[in-house]
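4.2 Preliminary Data

To establish feasibility before requesting continued support, the project team ran the inverse folding procedure on a target of 331 residues. The structure was first converted into the token representation described in Section 3, and no sequence information of any kind was made available to the design step. The complete token record follows.
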């Protein structure tokens, strides 16, 4: 039996449809209504697919975020294989950890200071070059991010406590407008390059870029607090957006696969941009949750859910023993 840990039901209709098409036995596990026995010696799943998103707090499901972390550790203690397990999920929950990982691999990312108190914003900003963005460490849908063009604007700002999010940590980061108002997202699956897309957007509309229509979410920021999150998975889709398939340089593909291998990401997307400020390429976001681009067959030439289904079917067969129970639970 495959368990699918998730929080946003609408996002995963295509996934469940693919599982149904293959007649694979699966059970949805709603992360906002978890219950388990930490003293259990077995689980009812041969394999679990983690589809939790850090943006759950925007939908009233903050408790699901950390409960899912505990549950994944519990499953792994029992020997249940988890796709995008606790190591990948820990990275998903921290932009600071993502930047640490990029630094450990020698990959360029925007200069950043991590802070945990409003009185640290100014000294952090003095170490960077404006314009800056300040964003919560636990991200999701570009929520609460704010841009500041100079120190005077930062010092005059109000409501800065909101920038520290649900874990009390914020990032102060140099803002790099992407060249041609476009970013690139590279998807990887099961240790292999899957596809890449370039996503364009009118800068006057902000920078929440999402190629998946299913990811449309209401804005949680005011018009005055324009956000600059370039995550193309969880942000509101905009009808004027242009999306095209691209073939990144080989070194970029290699970098993405190294990121995924280091992070324990079985499925994930990595975003990068070319900066208008200095012309350099910067990696800036790592996503364990991938909903795939809308109309993928016409955009990238194939249906990624079919390839994901192939991986799930293969891994479920490998993990299953007698009567579909986990091998560790048999006998």
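Position-by-position output of the design step:
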């Amino acid at each position: 039996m495959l368990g699918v840990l998730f929080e946003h039901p609408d996002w995963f209709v295509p996934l469940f449809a693919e599982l149904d098409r293959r007649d694979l036995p699966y059970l949805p596990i709603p992360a906002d209504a978890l219950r388990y026995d930490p003293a259990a010696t077995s689980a009812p799943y041969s394999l679990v697919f983690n589809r939790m998103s850090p943006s759950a707090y925007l939908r009233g499901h903050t408790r699901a975020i950390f409960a899912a972390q505990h549950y994944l550790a519990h499953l792994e203690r029992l020997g249940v294989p988890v796709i995008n397990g606790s190591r990948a999920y820990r990275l998903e929950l921290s932009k600071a950890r993502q930047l640490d990982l990029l630094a450990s691999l020698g990959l360029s990312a925007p200069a950043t200071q991590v802070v945990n108190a409003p009185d640290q914003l100014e000294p952090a900003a003095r170490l960077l070059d404006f314009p800056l963005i300040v964003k919560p460490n636990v991200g999701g849908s570009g929520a609460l991010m704010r841009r500041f063009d100079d120190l005077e604007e930062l010092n005059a700002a109000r409501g800065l406590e909101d920038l520290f999010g649900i874990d009390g940590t914020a990032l102060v980061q140099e803002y790099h407008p992407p060249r041609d108002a476009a970013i690139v997202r590279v998807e990887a699956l099961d240790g292999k390059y899957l596809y890449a897309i370039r996503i364009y957007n009118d800068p006057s509309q902000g920078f929440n870029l999402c190629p998946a229509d299913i990811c449309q979410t209401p804005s949680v920021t005011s018009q005055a607090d324009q956000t600059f999150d370039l995550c193309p998975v969880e942000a509101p889709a905009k009808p004027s957006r242009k999306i095209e398939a691209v073939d990144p340089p080989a070194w970029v593909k290699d970098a993405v696969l190294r990121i995924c291998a280091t992070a324990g990401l079985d499925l994930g997307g990595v975003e990068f941009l070319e900066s208008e400020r200095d012309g350099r390429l910067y990696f800036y976001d790592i996503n364990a949750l991938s909903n795939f681009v809308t109309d993928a067959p016409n955009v990238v030439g194939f249906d990624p859910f079919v390839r994901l289904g192939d991986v799930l079917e293969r891994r479920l067969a490998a993990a299953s023993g007698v009567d579909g129970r986990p091998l560790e639970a048999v006998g």
